[in-house]
């Protein structure tokens, strides 16, 4: 009897081993597929960009499984969170799904991007932290103001282009006053003559002086004649 049942036992053992190998292979395949579909932090990336003149921080999710993830952005200062920029949810795709956060970022600023996608990502940061570009977003061009003419600019205008100035009333009366100042006025002459004694009696005094000189000369002349007559 033992000899009769030996082939059946061997066939059963072989079948069991085959089923075990098949089950193990299936588990490995399923495990690999599960790992391939799992959401990981490596499927997330961040970048600082400019939307016109507005700064934005973009986070891209390329998770093919489409697991919903929560993304939070924090501004860093000396290794600590200075402020929370915002928080949004995203579902990845093979092409990649992007969420943006409006942020007027400064050049060379540092941001921490925190991702949570349970049960696969239990809160992790995108490594390394995001560093913004060295140049800020371009500001709007402002119109250049028209320069206002200064007095120095008007002074350089050629003389022939400017109208001939018309003499004012004060300038018209100044020239005659200057001419008249060269000759003494009657009042001034009278005042000076009165102070020096040269008034209207000058002619009379001169006549008297001439008469006295004539009389003196006559007296000398007659005296000489009489002296000559006496000597004879």
Write the layout of secondary structure elements.
Elements: H1 2-37, E1 44-51, E2 54-61, E3 68-77, E4 80-91, E5 97-102, E6 110-117, E7 121-125, E8 130-131, H2 151-155, H3 169-180, H4 186-196, H5 202-231
Antiparallel strand pairs: 1-2, 2-5, 3-4, 3-6, 6-7, 6-8
Describe this entry's structure for a reader.
The chain is of the alpha+beta class. It has a domain at 41-131: Uncharacterised protein PF16024, DUF4785 (Immunoglobulin-like). The protein has 5 helices and 8 strands, in the order αββββββββαααα. It has helices at residues 2-37, 151-155, 169-180, 186-196, 202-231; strands spanning 44-51, 54-61, 68-77, 80-91, 97-102, 110-117, 121-125, 130-131. The strands form 2 sheets. Strands 3, 4, 6, 7 and 8 form a 5-stranded antiparallel β-sheet that branches. It has a 3-stranded antiparallel β-sheet with strand order 1-2-5, with no helix packed on it. It is rod-shaped, with a radius of gyration of 63 Å.
């Amino acid at each position: 009897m033992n000899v009769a049942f030996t082939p059946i036992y061997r066939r059963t053992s072989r079948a069991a081993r085959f089923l075990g190998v098949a089950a193990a292979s299936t588990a490995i395949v399923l495990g690999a597929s599960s790992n391939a579909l799992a959401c990981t932090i490596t499927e997330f990336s961040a970048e600082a960009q400019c939307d016109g003149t507005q700064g934005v921080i973009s986070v891209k999710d390329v998770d093919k499984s489409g697991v919903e993830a929560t993304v939070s952005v924090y501004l860093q200062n000396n290794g600590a969170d200075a402020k929370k920029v915002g928080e949004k949810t995203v579902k990845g795709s093979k092409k990649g799904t992007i969420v943006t956060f409006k942020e007027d970022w400064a050049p060379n600023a540092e941001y921490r991007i925190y991702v949570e996608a349970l049960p696969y990502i239990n809160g992790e940061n995108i490594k390394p932290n995001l560093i913004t570009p060295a140049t800020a977003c371009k500001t709007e061009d402002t119109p250049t103001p028209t320069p206002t003419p200064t007095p120095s600019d008007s002074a350089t205008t050629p003389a022939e282009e400017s109208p001939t100035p018309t003499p004012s009333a004060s300038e018209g009366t100044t020239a005659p006053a200057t001419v008249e100042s060269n000759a003494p006025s009657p009042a001034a002459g009278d005042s000076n003559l009165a102070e020096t004694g040269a008034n209207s009696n000058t002619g009379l005094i001169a006549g008297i002086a001439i008469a006295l000189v004539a009389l003196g000369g006559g007296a000398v002349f007659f005296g000489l004649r009489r002296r000559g007559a006496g000597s004879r």
